[in-house]
Amino acid sequence: MTKAGRLFVFLSAGVLVGSSGLAASGADCKAVKGVYEGRELRLQHNLWVDDNEASWVNFMKQGDIDIGTPMLVRKVKSDEVVLQVAGQKRQIEISMEDVMPDCQAVLARMLGPTAPSLDGLSEKDRDGIKRGALAVGMSRRAILLAVGYPPYRYKKPFSGQTAINHDVTGGELTFAGSTFA
Length: 181
Prior knowledge:
Distance between the termini: 60 Å
Shape: globular
Oligomer: single chain
Number of strands: 9
Radius of gyration: 19 Å
Strand order of the largest sheet: 2-5-4-3-1-6
Mean pLDDT: 75
Largest sheet: 6 strands, mixed
Helix content: 25-40%
Order of helices and strands: HHEEEEEHEHHHEEE
């Protein structure tokens, strides 16, 4: 292949990746605007909101809007997503500033087509999810549903036996097997 041909293939691949939304990274959420804007989706975990503002770093904050709540994605901006609680006038501005790893990954964890199933969860898990709070003995899955996913930088430690710092107690989450100890 000629040098010009290789350059064309390289540039074409870049256009395809960029237009598919796979290249969306950092705070530029506009790349996923067509995927989310105007859709009604359900919260995949409790969402902490303060004065109708929230952050993509929702982990370990007490839930204000319950898991499974239908949300209309009103607007997707480069560094912000505006959600409206379905059937209400209440709108929530979610700051996506410095989002990691990218808007697509964070929004996919936060919003989905159906409410997450609570089947197979213990009564302790269900209670923690309902309260948006942690309790000793909760499963990892229940913790994610109750308080959201840890920031991306904490992904590996959360997958192991212990330890992610959080802003509620300043301590760590420690697991004995698959439950919060």
